[in-house]
Amino acid sequence: MDDQGxxxxxxxxxxxxxxxxxxxxxxxxxxxGVVAGDAYLVRGAPGTGKTTLGNELAYAxxxxxxxxxxxxxLTETHDRMLAHLRGFRFYDPAQVARRVHxxxxxxxxxxxxxxxxxxxxxxxxxxxxxxxxxxxGVGFAEAAAPTAVDAARFVQRLQARLSPLGCTTVxxxxxxxxxxxxxxxxxxxxxxxxLDRTNSRDVRWLRVAKLRGGAPLGGRHEFAIDERGxxxxxxxxxxxxxxxxxxxxxxxxxxxxxxxxDAMLGGGLLPGSSTMVLGTPGAGKTLLGLxxxxxxxxxxxxxxxxxxxxxxxxxxxxxxxxxxxxxAHVEAGRVRFLRRPALEGSPDAWAWELLSALDAHGTRRLVxxxxxxxxxxxxxxxxxxxxxxxxxxxxxxxxxxxxxVVEMESFVAPELAIPVPAVxxxxxxxxxxxxxxxGSRLHRLVSVLKTRESPFDPTVREFAIGARGIEIGQPFSCxxxxxxxxxxxxxxxx
Length: 494
Hints:
Elements: E1 18-19, H1 26-30, E2 34-35, E3 39-44, H2 50-63, E4 67-72, H3 78-85, E5 100-104, H4 106-128, E6 130-136, H5 138-144, H6 148-162, E7 168-174, H7 183-186, E8 189-198, E9 201-211, E10 220-226, E11 229-233, H8 236-239, H9 259-264, E12 274-279, H10 285-298, E13 303-307, H11 312-321, H12 326-331, E14 335-339, H13 347-361, E15 365-369, H14 371-375, H15 384-397, E16 401-407, H16 421-424, E17 429-438, E18 441-450, E19 461-466, E20 469-475
Parallel strand pairs: 3-7, 3-8, 4-5, 4-6, 6-7, 12-16, 12-17, 13-14, 13-15, 15-16
Antiparallel strand pairs: 1-2, 8-9, 9-10, 10-11, 17-18, 18-19, 19-20
């Protein structure tokens, strides 16, 4: 998996040169990587991923041509550890005893105490010319120290002997992150790993609690462990929280593909703007997004549909039924799809994958269908508004014009209830599609809720979906009263 969030904007603070960790996303959170000769403590409860992370670092070092020593203290045997590592892609058996060397510290701890452990570690680093030392099971060494001060001194003396050798030290310790103890005072960096239960799912978190001489991304960041190993997903708003201006895009409105809607919008959508398309189920939101992508493809503007529910083939067929010629655009690569079922996962992982896809294909138009599916992935729902703001900033900086489809929960409702009100405030434009009952039939209605930097037509208009797609009609007349199941369209001009 490629690293996420490494191309930070702006100048980086000067400091010691940093080495890449080889762990996806971790360098971005650390502000560039680790410093040669520094010591880092990774602490977390059992099962949070400490051993996996430590070994992945070792094999990344080996892949880069450097030597690494993985030392264990009263943990699982090396044979069992290697057997478990075979399930990861980063594991390379050819590197074992070649560039990755495993050392047991059990005898040294029993016979020589912490001094014996230190001698064993320094000797192993020197013998193998290693520039990375991973010590798995530091908690046992802490327990063997008479006092917390002795444990801290052990780490201090160890680093003092390894730093001149250019060896970076990573200490893995079990325990609650808040109980870091005296060892944490001596290390240059402290990483906390946690595994929390959120409703019915488990979420892994990584936090940089301490980093000398660096500027890490603050807060907790989700990470995952799969067959590829560890992948950290920097919080989008932490990595990309600053406002971004449009990258040289003109300010002439661009057409949406539905002429009548463009007239309501004052000529179309501004380049780099983000629009919330809010609507009831079956109101035509997806079809509007397809119009938008097909129009862009016709004009030579590459488009991307980031979808969660429907398979791409089904979406293409929907576009073909209304004559958009979408299949030809997809075959030619003018329209592409990014599909990730919104079952479980990290919204940040999705965002970094999306931005990578946009950059790879020079995308100019984006449809997210549906953003309300994305919202369900948030382990911390309060993040939604700041996340969307950061994402909109990134799109604006790339000159990408985006439609975010948001599904309303009911087919008809007496009041307009936006699922995530705070998110709607971050959008440049708002369009509402709905079906209302009048007499014995349903009427499809469209209205522009807001636009930025341009006037718009506040009229509620009927629209139809036919063989040529969406066609905007006349203003809707509510007759004697508001339509059943809908807000009164007579208010606000008609």
